[in-house]
Amino acid sequence: MIAETVCSAVSAAGLGIAAVTAYRRRFLAAVRTAAYALIPVALVMTGVVEWIADTAFSPTAWAGFALLGVAWLLFMVTRTVERRRGGTRKERRAARAEARRSAVAPDASAPSLGAGAPAPRPAAARPAGKPRAEDDFSDIEAILKKHGI
Known about the structure:
Elements: H1 2-23, H2 27-46, H3 48-56, H4 59-85, H5 89-102, H6 132-146
C-alpha cells in the first residue's frame, strides 16, 4: 500500500518537472522526463511492485536467493579446480592411460640432427682474415666516428 503511494508521488513529481521543462521550451528533455516519470506508475499497475514487496519481506524467498548463491559459488569453485587440474575426469583418465603407454622406453634411434657432428657454419658470415673480437670493435669505432667522437 505504501509502495503504491510512493510510486504515485514520484510519478507526479516527475510529471511536474517535465511540465516545467516543457514550459522552458526544452521539449525533447521534457518528453524524456515524462517517460521516466511514468515508469513507477506502470510498475504499480502491472503488479511488479507488489511482487517485489512480497519477495523482499519473505524469508522463503531470501532462503531461495541464498541457495542460488551457494549453487553459483559451487559452480565457480569446481571450474577453478578443474582448470588447475587440467580438465575433466575423462580427460585426466585419458592422460593417465597415455602416460602408462608411453612409460615404456622406446627403442633407441639415431639422433635427428645427424651422427653427432656439429652443423657446419656458413663461411660468409664474417671475413676470413679478421678475428671476431676485431669485427665487434670495428663496428663500435664506425658508430663513434659517425657521431664525431
